[in-house]
Amino acid sequence: MEHIITESMDLTTRRIVRDIIKIVRSGDEGSWNLPSDLTGEDYYKEDLYVFFDWNMNWNESGQKYFVDGNYDDNTETMAITLFINKDYYPQSLYDLIADLNDIVRHEYEHHYQNIGLRPDDEYFDGEDEDQPKDWTYYLQPHEIPAVIQGIRRVMKLRGISFEDALDGWYVRNVSDIIPKKDYEQLKEKLTELYYSRYGKK
């Protein structure tokens, strides 16, 4: 059953990322309500609604893009924010597609937690300010499955190992805020948790 659910969530993740990339390639900047603004449908599977806001005005030196995601429990909405540096586009699409797959699948896992399709101990009902501000943030009970599922999407997308996908995530997204020595601890724990759940192939 878990395999069937995961495959279904991966399909929806791919559809959301495809919709976002379609908008990016069109050059139509601004705010989008998905999937309704593209297809007229109200929601993705499990009544998930996505708000996507983006532009091509990002000009931080040496940075290809900025992308971030969030999930709102009250509105059951995933929000994706994307700023692209034109100087690196479209070459940046390769990494951007990987990061979007990671982020969308990560936030989709939080949606499943919120609507009761995951164990109770994976649901977080506290305040954001109560969460850790260091690398242990990613080892909270509700974050571990979300991080692992996001990295799994990149694994499958690129045909690489969990460790390599995790290293890529670190370099592209958090190397400026998590020291290398702390990341090595995080990597060890997440890798152990991943293989305990899925085994080594």
Q: SSE layout and pairings?
A:
Blueprint: H1 2-26, E1 30-34, H2 36-39, E2 49-55, E3 65-72, E4 77-84, H3 93-114, H4 143-158, H5 162-174, H6 180-198
Helix pairs in contact: 1-3, 3-4, 4-5, 5-6
Describe the structure in your own words.
The protein has 201 residues and is an alpha+beta fold. The chain has one domain. Helices cover 49% and strands 14% of the residues. It has six helices and four strands, in the order H-E-H-E-E-E-H-H-H-H. The protein has helices at residues 2-26, 36-39, 93-114, 143-158, 162-174, 180-198, and strands at 30-34, 49-55, 65-72, 77-84. A four-stranded mixed β-sheet has the order 1-2-4-3. Helix 1 (2-26) crosses helix 3, helix 3 packs antiparallel against helix 4 and helix 4 (143-158) crosses helix 5. The longest helix has 25 residues, at 2-26. The radius of gyration is 17 Å and the shape is globular. The mean pLDDT is 94.
The residue ranges in which pLDDT falls below 50 over 5 or more consecutive positions are none
How does the overall form come out from the CA principal axes? globular
Largest sheet: number of strands, sense, barrel closure: 4 strands, mixed
Decide which structural class fits the backbone: alpha+beta
Rounded to an integer, what's the Rg over CA atoms? 17 Å
The span between the termini is 20 Å
Beta-strand portion reads 5-15%
Helix-strand string: HEHEEEHHHH
Count of DSSP E strands? 4
